[in-house]
Amino acid sequence: MVDGDSQQPPTWKFTQCFGDKGDVEDITEADIISTVEFDQTGNYLATGDKGGRVVLFERNETKKTCEYKFHTEFQSHEPEFDYLKSLEIEEKINKIKWCRRQNASHYLLSTNDKTIKLWKVFEKSLKVV
Fold first, then answer.
1. What is the mean pLDDT of the chain?
2. Which superkingdom is the protein from (predicted)?
C-alpha cells in the first residue's frame, strides 16, 4: 500500500448460520451451515444446513466489492427412518455440487447420508393480473 492510500483491505466475516438470530441460545442445530459450494463461474453460491435446507445466493454485480444477495431457498431433505438398517437418517446436507450449465436453468446435486437429489433452479416470469 502506498502512503496516503486510504483503501482498506477487504474484511472477511465468518458465520455458521444466516440471518439475525439474536442470542447464541436462539440458534438451533438445524440452523448451522454444513456445506458451501460455488458454481463454476463464481457468480452463484449454494449453502446447505443441518436442517436440510439449501440456500442459493447470486453475486451482486452492482457492488464494487464481492457481495452475494439472496436468490432462493428450498427444503432439500427431510429426516427419515431406514427400516432395513433400523437407522435414523438425518436431513443434514453433506455436499452440494453444481452441474455444468447447459441452458438458462441451473442444476445442482444435494446429498444427505442416504439420498442424492438433482435440482433444477430457473427463473419464471409471472404475469400480474
1. 83
2. Eukaryota
